[in-house]
Specification:
With 200 residues, the protein is mostly helical. It is built from nine helices and no strands. The longest helix has 28 residues, at 169-196.
Length: 200
């Protein structure tokens, strides 16, 4: 495979052939950037997530080394979060900030989010001084922000053009709900950003 092609195409080529070391080799040789290279790396972690034992280690460990060597801290952080979507943990305390349950509670209070929503998807420690799963917290809070944002957008689109008395009662209620969801989305977004701020 020629190195002049897209990194995503090369990775897909080796993936289809089951040559997973080739996938890692391509990613290692190509200059890191936040678009195609990140997508290629995400594909590699997706492959690793479906493997077990020695096979998994042969992909996961080299990728982790590549990630730790990255100078672009945002790319490093987002790639680690991408990997967690596939159940691959490339961060062992070097990439994402470490937070305790107390930090989580304080941040939730400041940003005014409902931690009960997070607790549906993440198990938190009973001790306030114990560390939480920062990656899972960020991913779920981002997903909640996107959920509320899309809900608000759909409601806005359902309301006919117009304002004031020309709006039906149910349309006014939809606008109020859309406004509420927009605000909740903003809060969850602020929460997730605060949880990863110290990773810069």
């Amino acid at each position: 495979m020629h190195t002049s092609g897209r990194v995503t195409d090369e990775v897909e080529h080796y993936k289809q052939r089951g040559e997973y070391r080739g996938v890692v080799r391509v990613i290692r040789k190509r200059p890191p950037e936040r678009l195609r290279w990140r997508t290629a790396l995400s594909t590699a972690t997706q492959i690793a997530g479906g493997l077990k034992g020695r096979e998994r280690m042969q992909i996961e460990e080299p990728i982790r080394e590549i990630l730790l060597d990255l100078q672009d801290k945002i790319l490093r952080r987002e790639s680690a979060l991408d990997a967690r979507r596939f159940g691959v943990d490339l961060d062992r305390g070097e990439i994402l900030p470490k937070h305790t349950l107390w930090d989580l509670k304080r941040t939730a209070y400041v940003t005014r989010v409902d931690l009960e929503q997070l607790a549906r998807y993440i198990k938190f420690p009973a001790d306030f001084s114990k560390p939480i799963d920062t990656a899972a917290t960020v991913l779920v809070s981002r997903a909640l922000a996107e959920l509320h944002r899309k809900r608000a957008q759909k409601l806005y689109l359902r309301v006919q053009q117009g304002d004031g008395p020309s709006l039906m009662m149910h349309e006014q209620l939809m606008l109020e709900r859309a406004s509420y969801d927009t605000e909740v989305a903003r809060r969850w977004s602020a929460f997730s950003k605060t949880m990863i701020q110290s990773s810069f």
